Amino acid sequence: MKRLLEEIIKTWWSEPFPLVKPRTIKLSEFFDPKIKKILSVIGFRRTGKTFTLFDFAKGYGKQQCIYINFEDERLPADVQVLSRLIEVIKELKGSQPLVLLLDEIQEIPGWSVWARRVNETTPYHLILSGSSSKLSSKEIPTELRGQTLSIQISPLNWREFIQFKGLNLQETAIPQVLNTAREYITFGGLPEIVLAEEGIKPLLLTEYYNTFVLRDVIERYHLRNAEALKDLLRLILNTRTYTYTKLANTLKSLGHGAGKATIIRYMHWLESTFFLSTVELCSPNVKRRIQAAKKAYIIDTYFCSRFSNVFSQNLGSLMEQAVWGELERKRFHDPLLEIFYWKDYLQHEVDFVVMRNQIVKEIIQVTYAHNLSEIAERELNSLLKAAKELKCSNLTVITWEFESKMEMKGHIVNCIPFWKWLL
């Protein structure tokens, strides 16, 4: 084992970096060599976590870093591998302070106890990465409480997407900008897919999806009823609003013996692997909020356009999905932000309510509208009703290309094109 680890480390030092395209999030901004804080880089599979580690090593110095991927089939899932790793590093570099970049470390049982010991007793800094919320601040093991800082890597945002495409918006005609925005919501922001030829994109996404289902859910949680999970995913990908009871009843009608408790467990697993996130009803009544229907948003719009019969051609729904993604990124940088949807008993509905410290900061409606006449009157009425109930005057309608400031019943409604709002 020591010989294999030595080979992996020396290969890392000797081989050149792959092409690393810059991202908005820089690990160097969170890293302080004077402070022994473990950085946890988390996010869905294939969002660019590994390349974020490479980008850090490129800036910090490759010889001062060691990268290990614990999904390497040559490495057994045994904590002894971690102990041997420290022995090998000491033999190669002595007591020289290094940064250990450890990818998918949660695959090793007992990793958290080892990480705490290394952080407290060695000169090495740890940057951990994984596609499981076991590394997130919400679910970090007890022994690491207070010792970690979680950094979430999402699919490319709009700015990153246009940079990957080599576009300068100031020099690009509006029709081409809109065409690029359509590509963004159709094919999403998973980096490898963004850079791939169009004919390869569906093949890559299918591979990602199958690997996620098998490795991140079925194998990780030792799931026996894999078919029930796969049918649940089909349901979620084809509906935005759900209740646990309705999902359980639908699965029972399909021949699965999955009760409500099972569905709740499955949905928790899907959230813990960052595949989806849940948005709840905006209500001061906690019981009503828990019992009300929830909305599911998927990590990347391409999963919706590729695997959904409902959303594949519905650009308004894909826009809504992308807007949620941007709000989630803002929420990561400001943990005090909360995102809800709003609905009253007359079925007036608003897509997003953004709160900070229990105060409503903005109400957002999303619509695939090219001009004012295409904005449904019901959507504007819902926005105004929500504004009155929630006592908020910051009202936004995100459109496809219509831009205006309108006064309606004493309120100013800011209509802004999708691609501009994302900036």
From TrEMBL:
<dbReference type="InterPro" id="IPR027417">
    <property type="entry name" value="P-loop_NTPase"/>
</dbReference>
<dbReference type="Pfam" id="PF13635">
    <property type="entry name" value="DUF4143"/>
</dbReference>
<dbReference type="Pfam" id="PF13173">
    <property type="entry name" value="AAA_14"/>
</dbReference>
<dbReference type="InterPro" id="IPR025420">
    <property type="entry name" value="DUF4143"/>
</dbReference>
<feature type="domain" description="AAA">
    <location>
        <begin position="36"/>
        <end position="161"/>
    </location>
</feature>
<protein>
    <submittedName>
        <fullName>ATPase</fullName>
    </submittedName>
</protein>
<dbReference type="InterPro" id="IPR041682">
    <property type="entry name" value="AAA_14"/>
</dbReference>
<feature type="domain" description="DUF4143">
    <location>
        <begin position="215"/>
        <end position="358"/>
    </location>
</feature>
